[in-house]
Amino acid sequence: MEMPAPAPQAIAYIGIGGNLGDARHTVEQAIARLAALPQSRLLRTSSLYRTAPVDSSGDDYVNAVAQLATSLAPLDLLRALQQVELEHGRERPYRNAPRTLDLDVLLYGDLVVDSDALCVPHPRMAQRAFVLVPLLEIEPAIAIPGIGTGQDCLARISGQDITKL
Description:
It contains three helices and ten strands. By secondary structure, the chain is α+β, with helices and mostly antiparallel strands.
């Protein structure tokens, strides 16, 4: 009997952040949960960063970016991330509300997805220091489909404060 071929793996980048409760601890726990996702392997994580809320309110955020090799389809990966958010008490009372944990699919290989459920590349990733700085830390030569290189986007975020923890 032939063994089925393993599902192809994609490299996905996940944005991680939170600003309610012990945000640093929550982000660290979320990274550990990403390492345990089915059909996925955590390859790298950035340092943790502190940033002020953008288009939001509340305490400063703790942010990071993780790189995963995964054979989960993009929507299955999103569902798995949303489950991790729920495990950490994530609520969505209104757009950009303060949150215990936010996990975003930033990139999924060179795939471009534009659906009601998921947009990849993440629509505002090239405008947010809390995404771009940790992403470039782990992948300095990253290309963002339809946008350009991450390095080319740095000028857009030059006025945003971000501090490595």
